[in-house]
Design a protein that fits this description.
alpha/beta; Glutamine Phosphoribosylpyrophosphate, subunit 1, domain 1; Rossmann fold; 3 domains; eight-stranded antiparallel β-sheet; seven-stranded antiparallel β-sheet; binds 6-O-phosphono-alpha-D-glucopyranose
């Protein structure tokens, strides 16, 4: 994970790097740092532990002067959260400063060799090895390009990095297995993990591939290190706006993104009919289709697989990104892997895609981030059109995923227009639900702000409850447990005692009668029920209403997101940046 940003241009770099770094904070936020080449051609480094604002308060990044520099926000993998382990790292001769996104797998043996050769290390990270290795390789190499090429052959794992060179005043931007985008501005260049970080300055971007190296100074040259030659790359125009990536008056990105669900869901429905038809054809032809996703995206896979079973009578099994290898024998050239990912960079999902492709399977993906690795490595893709999602907890991307997948289930059953109608009804409900935010907040405060919460649902409402569980744990830090109503009697009833709070999802569908039985089992043991339903049942102790729509469980999603959001804020947490978590998980 981690976020990296570099700037080379005609303006002072530190304010630009600081602003961009804050937009990358969702990728990691335990420590951060910046390195600039000053007017005396010396590399100045400042870093510290904590969130960016906090570190800036201590070290004052803006006191760094220079027009070329790099900055990093960290999500610790190798090495504790300490100032020494924060990036950037410098070489022994102080000629190079480096920041890194990824994990260098063979760093232990490389470090040992470098220490034997006299290099001195200040941190316990894998990253610091890279800067010393480049320094060491420079001893034999004809230039930095050559030294980086040699380094890329010795290093194993994911090692996308930016290297600031004191001699030349250039930034060397190398990509291997973690994203790296070059922003092309007016007499200035950016290099970043993510487009949104530099959108304020330019919407022109070059997406680097593995083993490509961009060198930034007053121009940008790109080299293919495998082919050993300079290459020309297309510049893409990014349609997202900088404003979409700001809070625009909302206290948190998460709340803003929940409110955006109405608009964004409409965009999600507005898919290119030709692309949609192509995907439907591929799904029709496939002998087997498997969904793949992690975290919230996996919950979208679970929901989709139920709708595909209902509407098309086919079994599209959902697989967790991190569990892909267990199922790899299921993949062959008659199989389609359907990968779902907001960021398009999740390492577990990407690994699955690569394995599936090596077995001849076709890959379809549904991503939010244009130009992401998953999108580019797929045979066909659809985009969510949800705009940038900044809060770590995925909300509008999730609802968009669900909407598009359900639309596809309808389309596969030749009911595209009926699907659109039903989904539009769901979107109308989103609007009504979001207006109930204050009521949901009050209820969360009085009834749900407990140490333990249970959520029950059946059918589609079960994975919807699972997504509610995930959100509550992720940002409210409350232990939550979602289960299919029918499972209660097999184990979790043992935990129900007077006062235990339980959220029951009761859509007006075939699951309703069974859900009523399950609720009675909880109430008989003193549990307190908050019912979410289009009908106010007497058995509910508390009630959150929504309208009667055919796809009622999907309409419930924003209710659970709002509950999690309000619980998080009530408990003094920052819902946008949950502890220990990051948005784009580019490590296995
Ligand atoms: C991280 C995020 C989650 C997200 C998951 C999958 O864990 O914190 O919000 O659901 O990654 O991410 P993806 O980008 O593949 O949807």
């Amino acid at each position: 994970m981690c976020g990296i940003i570099g700037y080379s241009g005609t303006r002072q770099a530190s304010p630009i790097l600081l602003a961009s770094l804050k937009r990358l904070e969702y990728r990691g936020y335990d420590s951060c740092g910046m390195a600039l080449l000053n007017g005396n051609k010396v590399i100045d480094v400042k870093k510290g532990t904590g969130r960016i604002e906090e570190v800036n308060g201590k070290v004052d990044f803006l006191s760094l002067s220079g027009k070329v520099g790099i900055a990093h926000t960290r999500w610790a993998t190798h090495g504790n959260v300490t100032m020494e382990n924060a990036h950037p790292f410098t070489s022994c001769d102080q000629k190079y400063a480096l920041i890194h996104n990824g994990i260098l797998e063979n760093y232990v043996e490389l470090k040992k060799q470098l220490i034997e050769k006299g290099h001195h290390f200040n941190s316990t990270t894998d990253t610091e090895v890279l800067v010393h290795l480049i320094e060491e390789n420079m001893k034999q190499a004809k230039d930095l390009i050559d030294a980086i090429k040699k380094t890329s052959e010795q290093a194993e794992g994911a090692f996308t990095f930016l290297l600031l060179s004191q001699d030349s005043g250039e930034i060397y931007c190398f990509r291997k297995d973690s994203p790296l985008i070059i922003g092309v501005g007016n007499n200035e260049f950016f290099a970043s993990s993510d487009i949104t970080s530099f959108l304020e300055y330019t919407n022109k971007a070059i997406i680097l591939e593995n083993y490509e190296l961009a060198i930034l100074n007053d121009e940008c040259k790109i080299y293919d290190l495998v082919a050993e030659k300079e290459i020309e790359k297309d510049i893409s125009i990014i349609e997202w706006t900088a404003e979409q990536a700001t809070k625009t008056g909302y206290p948190h990105f998460m709340l803003k993104e929940i409110v955006e669900e109405v608009e964004v869901s409409k965009h999600a429905l507005d898919q290119d009919p030709i692309k949609l038809a192509g995907i439907v054809k591929l799904l029709h032809q496939a002998k087997n289709v498997y969904f793949l996703g992690s975290g919230t995206s996996y919950r979208a896979c679970l929901i989709a697989s139920i709708y595909f079973a209902k509407f098309t009578h086919r079994n599209f099994m959902p697989i967790l990104g991190s569990e892909f290898k267990t199922y790899q024998n299921l993949f062959d050239n008659e199989t389609v892997l359907f990968a779902i990912s907001q960021s398009g960079e999740t390492a577990d999902v990407l690994e699955g895609i690569r394995i599936a492709k090596s077995k001849g399977s076709k890959v379809i993906s549904l991503v939010n981030v244009m130009g992401s690795t998953i999108m580019r490595e797929s045979d066909q893709y659809l985009t969510l059109n949800a705009g940038p999602e900044i809060a770590v907890a995925s909300t509008k991307a999730f609802t968009s995923q669900v909407i598009i997948l359900v639309l596809l289930a309808f389309a596969l059953n030749n009911q595209l227009s009926e699907g659109k109608d039903q989904l539009n009804e769901v979107i109308d409900q989103f609007e009504i639900i979001i207006k109930q935010s204050d009521f949901i907040k009050e209820l969360s405060k009085k009834v749900l702000n407990k140490q333990n919460l249970f959520l029950i649902g059946r059918g589609v409402a079960f994975p919807v409850a699972m997504e509610g569980e995930l959100k509550i744990k992720e940002i409210a830090y409350i232990h939550a447990d979602a289960l299919a109503g029918g499972e209660l009697k097999h184990h979790t009833l043992a935990l129900i005692e007077p006062g235990i709070s339980c959220i029951a999802l009761v859509p007006n569908d075939e699951t309703k009668d069974d859900m009523i039985n399950n609720i009675m089992q909880i109430k008989a043991r003193g549990g307190i029920i908050t019912g979410i339903s289009s009908e106010k049942l007497d058995i509910f102790d508390h009630y959150i209403s929504l309208g009667k729509v055919a796809l009622e469980p999907i309409a419930m999603i924003p209710i659970l997101q709002l509950i999690a959001y309000h619980l998080s804020v009530l408990r003094g947490n920052d819902p946008d940046f949950p502890r220990n978590l990051a948005k784009s998980v580019t490590v296995l």
